[in-house]
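Section 5: illustrative case.
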């Protein structure tokens, strides 16, 4: 079983990484799972063993090469219910916290976790931590929410999160103090890359104090950029809503002489949403993402290409990810948000002004409509696909925690649900591959070309 450090190369990861696949546990699982008594429901047939693995890379040639060298192909531990669990459900207290920006599916995750704990494992003491990591800090005074099957039964149609959220770092030691005072056995943390980094620090502090607390992360980000996660929940819903924005922009552009529709979508460092939405609704003529450098001026620059498009078709639709083109603001002061992230400059209004000025200088007036649906997308309920997906993630998070596993996130990988060690994913990011199928399909669908005066190249971190 490959629990050692392994080399890994994946198209979307952009470079070779070193990944450890070993999952830590709090101790030996000795308690017979309550699910074993529900054989009539088919539970016993779906018990998973730690030896059940999912290959990291399913490329047949790579697998053959690995086996040829007498090395077992690297793999992740499969998620799912275990026959023996670590915690006694009758004495266990669990908590769940949602952190960072809003995202479709947060309430679905909360509901899935609570119902699995309550109905399937018989855990009755489940607490919701209010307003993210602030909820652990006494000075903020946020009350704890008691979660029951009844209290979460009707939250699926609500956007946002019933627990609230917040941004910003909090003292790790104080968070662990709170977990000790509340006698929490499992903490479920729902959030993005910042939450994952915080969860790793919390878990490390718990280990230093020799506490028996399991930390399980359910990864969340509309940007879909969490490393070693094929798709994050909320992304499917975001694509749905983004395509509506593209439809609207296209109708606006076609409805006026020299009409231009400009849509800004989420994607701080990775352009998965912009690229995928453009393919789902193939009305976009230009897609700009953080991974691909563009130039504004020059014969092959963006503005010249847009001008050619307007002469030929009299309208155009542009989709831009929020993190695209940040190099255009290099001379401006860098600001940071409460979580320590660099505040992005507004590429949407920048492009709106540059486009308007370009055509004005050429006495060629355009009608430009600018659309930013970001906050609408973030706060809506999950669609059906994401709702089902959240159910899988929440249940597998509970199975992992009840088995005494810790320092992991639940991921979907190669069409299987797996356990990913926090240290393998925290602090890293997934990018759109300029040579991969997603971006090459965007180029084929838009026909936009390189938009650079010279050889095109990606701008993501090496």
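Designed sequence:
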């Amino acid at each position: 079983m490959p629990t050692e450090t392994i080399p890994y190369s994946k198209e979307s990861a952009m470079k070779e990484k070193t990944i450890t696949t070993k999952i830590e546990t709090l101790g030996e699982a000795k308690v017979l799972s309550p699910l074993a008594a529900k054989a009539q429901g088919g539970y016993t047939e779906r018990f998973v063993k730690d030896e059940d693995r999912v290959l990291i890379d399913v490329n047949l040639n790579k697998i053959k090469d690995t086996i040829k060298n007498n090395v077992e192909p690297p793999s992740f531990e499969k998620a799912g219910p275990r026959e023996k669990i670590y915690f006694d459900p009758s004495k266990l207290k669990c908590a769940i916290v949602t952190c960072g920006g809003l995202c479709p599916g947060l309430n679905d995750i909360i509901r899935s976790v609570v119902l699995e704990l309550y109905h399937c494992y018989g855990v009755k003491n489940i607490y919701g931590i209010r307003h993210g990591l602030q909820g652990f800090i006494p000075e903020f005074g946020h009350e704890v929410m008691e979660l029951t099957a009844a209290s979460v039964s009707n939250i699926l149609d609500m956007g946002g999160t019933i627990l609230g959220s917040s941004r910003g770092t909090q003292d790790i030691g104080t968070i662990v103090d709170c977990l000790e005072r509340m006698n929490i056995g499992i903490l479920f943390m729902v959030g993005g890359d910042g939450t994952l980094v915080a969860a790793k620090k919390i878990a490390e502090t718990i280990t230093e104090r020799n506490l028996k607390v399991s930390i399980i992360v359910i990864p969340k980000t509309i940007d879909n950029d969490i490393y070693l996660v094929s798709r994050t929940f909320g992304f499917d819903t975001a694509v749905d809503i983004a395509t509506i924005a593209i439809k609207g922009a296209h109708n606006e552009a076609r409805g006026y002489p020299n009409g231009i529709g400009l849509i800004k979508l989420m994607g701080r460092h990775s352009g998965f949403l912009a690229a995928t939405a453009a393919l789902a609704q193939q009305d976009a003529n230009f897609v700009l993402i953080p991974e691909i450098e563009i130039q504004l001026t020059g014969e092959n620059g963006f503005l010249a290409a847009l001008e050619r498009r307007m002469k030929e078709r009299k309208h155009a639709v542009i989709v831009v990810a929020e993190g695209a083109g940040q190099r255009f603001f290099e001379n401006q002061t860098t600001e940071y948000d409460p979580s320590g992230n660099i505040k992005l400059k507004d590429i949407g209004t920048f492009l709106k002004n540059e486009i308007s000025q370009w055509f004005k200088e050429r006495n060629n007036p355009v009608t430009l409509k600018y659309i930013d649906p970001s906050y609408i997308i973030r706060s809506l309920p999950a669609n059906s696909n994401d709702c089902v997906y959240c159910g899988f993630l929440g249940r597998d998070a509970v199975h992992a925690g009840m088995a005494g596993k810790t320092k992991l996130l639940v991921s979907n990988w190669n069409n299987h649900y797996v356990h990913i060690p926090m240290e393998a994913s925290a602090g890293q990011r997934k990018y759109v591959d300029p040579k991969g199928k997603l971006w090459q399909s965007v180029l084929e669908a838009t026909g936009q070309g390189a938009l650079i005066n010279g050889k095109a190249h990606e701008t993501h971190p090496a």
